[in-house]
UniProtKB/TrEMBL annotation:
<dbReference type="Pfam" id="PF03401">
    <property type="entry name" value="TctC"/>
</dbReference>
<comment type="similarity">
    <text>Belongs to the UPF0065 (bug) family.</text>
</comment>
<dbReference type="InterPro" id="IPR005064">
    <property type="entry name" value="BUG"/>
</dbReference>
<protein>
    <recommendedName>
        <fullName>Solute-binding protein family 3/N-terminal domain-containing protein</fullName>
    </recommendedName>
</protein>
Length: 85
């Protein structure tokens, strides 16, 4: 995975039924980190249940102006999420 190579980290995969289950596990401390889209995690972030470490977008997220992008942190990475039927 590019993120692991760029950051020198190693992650284990934990499968979840969907985004909601994964976010509840993250907020509950059952997992320590996840790469998630902001709009799905927004309520958890606004409630203070989750902290955003970095944005995986080309520019900072408008709602989180103090959160740096991965590129600003020295990692030339961007993630794009698609939803399709």
């Amino acid at each position: 995975m590019q993120f692991e190579e760029s950051t020198g980290t190693q992650f284990g995969y934990v499968g979840y039924e969907g985004t909601g289950e994964r976010l509840r596990a993250l907020a509950g401390g059952h997992i320590t980190v996840a790469i998630e889209d902001y709009h799905s995690a927004r309520a958890f972030v606004e409630n203070g249940d989750l902290n955003v470490l970095a944005a995986a977008t080309s520019e900072r997220i408008e709602e989180l102006p103090e959160t740096p992008t991965l590129k600003e942190l020295g990692h030339d990475l961007e993630f794009w999420l698609l939803v399709a039927l």
